[in-house]
């Protein structure tokens, strides 16, 4: 589990694919602190398992599903990526619940400065937009952000100076593909509302029914 608060901007050492799976290696320093083999690091919001640690970076496997869902297969040596270690149980929750399981990608439509902030507009698919709500949370390339506006085929977020300095977002240009993760709470609620619960005796559920959920969620 992650928070969407980026700890470090790393640099791609290589992405080697054989078919649609392979390995990714990233130059990094801060996220190596306390990291062991088998630990999780989010790379542009994608939860990856560390399989080797070098003095100046780490390497992880990427499977075909990861390549299909994310922008990692598009990256090349020298490109910068957002990095975050898995959240410590005793840490502060500065962003929102982020699983590191990407729902899909979007494309940057525009970046427009307004005083000290920058409006970032992202186009994406209807199935991703469906779960994005105004003033809700969304994760873009691993960065936890608050949604300011949702349109027919786009949504907007406002990036404050600190976020711009500490992440890759303001280094991107229109046409760049970014990873998107919807708010996990919204996804679970959608699942509950769309599917009928298995028949379970009321005494075993403590009285929790679909009617109860529909009324109070």
Q: H/E element string?
A: EEEEEHEEEHEEEHEHHH
- Tally of structural domains: 2
Residue-averaged pLDDT:
90
Number of strands: 12
Spatial gap, N to C terminus: 24 Å
Widest sheet: strand ordering: 1-2-5-4-3-6
Characterize the biggest β-sheet.
Answer: 6 strands, antiparallel, barrel
Query: Measured on Cα atoms, how large is the radius of gyration?
Result: 19 Å
Category from helices, strands and their pairing: alpha+beta
Q: What is the overall number of helices?
A: 6
Strand content: 35-45%
| CATH-level-2 architecture of the largest domain | Beta Barrel
CATH class of the largest domain: Mainly Beta
Low-confidence stretches: none
Task: Report helical residue fraction.
Answer: 10-25%
Query: How would you sum up the global shape?
Result: globular
Structure, described:
The chain is α+β, with helices and mostly antiparallel strands. The chain folds into two domains: 8-85, Elongation Factor Tu (Ef-tu), domain 3, CATH 2.40.30.20; 104-190, Elongation Factor Tu (Ef-tu), domain 3 (Beta Barrel). It is built from six helices and twelve strands. The strands form two sheets. The protein has a six-stranded antiparallel beta barrel. The longest helix has 11 residues, at 184-194. The two termini are 24 Å apart. The model has no long low-confidence stretch (mean pLDDT 90).
């Amino acid at each position: 589990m992650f928070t969407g608060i980026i700890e470090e901007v790393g640099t791609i050492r290589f992405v080697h694919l054989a078919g649609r799976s392979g390995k990714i290696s990233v130059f990094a320093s801060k996220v190596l602190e306390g990291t062991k083999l088998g630990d999780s690091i989010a790379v542009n919001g994608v939860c990856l398992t560390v399989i080797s640690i070098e003095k100046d970076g780490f390497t992880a496997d990427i499977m075909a599903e990861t390549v299909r869902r994310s922008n990692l297969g598009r990256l090349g040596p020298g490109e910068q990526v957002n990095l975050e270690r898995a959240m410590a149980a005793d840490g502060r929750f500065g962003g929102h619940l982020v699983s590191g399981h990407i729902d899909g990608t979007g494309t940057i439509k525009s970046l427009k400065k307004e005083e000290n902030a920058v409006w970032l507009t992202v186009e994406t698919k209807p199935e991703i937009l469906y779960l994005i709500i105004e003033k809700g949370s969304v994760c873009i390339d691993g960065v936890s952000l608050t949604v300011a506006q949702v349109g027919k085929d786009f949504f907007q977020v406002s990036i404050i100076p600190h976020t711009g300095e500490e992440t890759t977002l303001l280094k991107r240009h229109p046409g760049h593909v970014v990873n998107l993760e919807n708010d996990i709470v919204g996804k679970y609620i959608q699942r509950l509302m769309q599917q009928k619960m298995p028949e379970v005796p009321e005494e075993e559920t403590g009285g929790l029914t679909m009617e109860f959920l529909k009324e109070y969620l």
